[in-house]
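Before the break, one more example. Copy the sequence into your notebook; we will annotate it together after we see the structure.
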Amino acid sequence: MKNILVIGSVGQIGSELTLELRKRYGNNNVVAGFRSTKPVGELLESGPAEIVDATNIDQITEVVKKYKIDTIYNLAAILSAVGESKPLAAWNVGIGGLMNCLEVSHEYNCALFTPSSIGAFGGGTPLDNTPQDTIQRPQTMYGVTKVTGELLSDYYHKRFGVDTRSVRYPGIISNVTLPGGGTTDYAVEIYYEAVKTGKFVCPLGKGTFLDMMYMPDAIDAAIDLMEADPTKLVHRNSFNVTAMSFDPEIISAEIKKHLPSFEMTYNVEPMKQAIANSWPNNMDDSCARKEWGWNPKWNLEKMTVDMLKVISDKHAKGLI
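Here is what the structure looks like once it is written out:
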């Protein structure tokens, strides 16, 4: 990777991935692509930024040619819960945008990273120790776009030689950018509410286990995979990756170790619960570990300490 374009650079993953890529590859070598919300602060000031709507192939092409891009991170997506209220938009962004990126990558010889998700699984998928290769029958439009994206990316690699790679992300937890309508968002919101109010109303029920990952590990996964030796990659699209699995009771108990007065109650949202029930309790990520050395650094205990510290600092300064 020498010249990189991040599409969706102001999103939850993109905002932090762009800055980390700039640290590793140089500020001027990483373009922050955005659709309507312009980057601000360090994200805008530290390197180039261009309007790049994933659904507009001309915009992608123009930026690829202007900056001699050799690697594209396509992070444009409408997340699971929002996608259920806007299925056509979810398809147009998730698949229309991907097709544009695949076509541009084919024409201009770019490597392409497009994340998949635990949402790619569904009915019939083994929920415990979910295999790398297993049945995928998602029950959401978000999941349908992710399975389709995996197949399209593999097709362009086998048919045209495009260097496509991806991971199936679990829920991503961050203390920088708030999530935007995902089923696993509660695992971010609970920390903010614990600090701000000492209370949290959980939209998922007790015993709902889901794979999760702290943002620093998510960033490492995206970069490490793209830096991996392609001759060792068997699967490409898409690797199971995970770092931890817990239900609301477990994360609440971990927070209470630091904030003993914290209280959590439940008000289960049926749609989110149904989606969560169709996703794995925990995935087998042994293929990622074997093929490109995946090894997460953060567990629930370590993450909780860091999340509460950063959010408490923000709260004390009146930033949240």
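DSSP finds twelve helices and 16 strands in the chain. The two ends are 36 Å apart (CA to CA). Try to locate both features in your own notes.
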